[in-house]
Amino acid sequence: MLKNPAKIVMCGCHEAGYHLIRALLENGLSFSHFVSLTPEQADRFSVFGYRDFSDLAQEYTIPLYYPEDYSLKTMHDQTFFRKNKFDLLIQGGWQRLFPPEVLATIRLGALGIHGSSDFLPKGRGRSPLNWSLIEGKKRFIIHLFFIRAGIDNGDIIDTETFDITEFDTIRTLYMKNFILTKRMILKNLPGILNETVRPRPQVGEPTYYPKRSPEDGLIDWETMDVWQIYNFIRAQTKPYPGAFGFIQGKKIKIWHGQVFDTRITYADAGYGDCVEKIDGNLIINCRGGLLLVDDYDVS
Description:
This protein has 8 helices and 14 strands. The protein is α/β, with parallel strands linked by helices.
């Protein structure tokens, strides 16, 4: 069990971070404050995968601060950090860069988690789990690092790796990410708090994943093959807005599908045509095979 006299603040508002912070609390870590967003703020700032931390704060009697702005750039928000003089910041899912003015108030530093299919500095930026699924990657490397001004460019404390299998979705990748992130923080936190860790700098030419928006979920039936479409769907299923396409003039948002067959053909069908409907399931003709869609919404 962890016992810490340090003054630790958690900044988070995401489902994956919620489970991590609960696990850390259950292992004896104490937080002096939570910084999170209200449901109204999450809607205003388009936070996909939002989770309300108020129940966790209430359960463990932790003061909860709602910032004026998600960016933490207002004078009021920066005054909050300056006055509290935290020793350490741990993320619980915060989809904004921390301002240098906030980072400068944290005595030991802020802990960041970022993953990629390659070792940092490759794969910095937004939505790396989603992108790794879309690109058909086979592994994911989680990095625990000290946050500094910039994009995922801090010195690395530790790494862990997990598989991306053909059965994974973004939700199962969050589960794996949670397991290994929890393990890394519990393993390294004593050394972080007593200042004996020896982080290493990132070496090499960085690459960056771009931000994704709901409009990026459009399936291009003409250019994407059936396996690319399958990866595309599982990368954007709930809690994300979902992949979507137009089938016989209707917009179909697809939450789950699978590669159905690569030998059965429909000679007169175009790509993106629904060639069969069986018990409500759609069979879609794609480049290189058929896609079975068994969880979808029509609008």
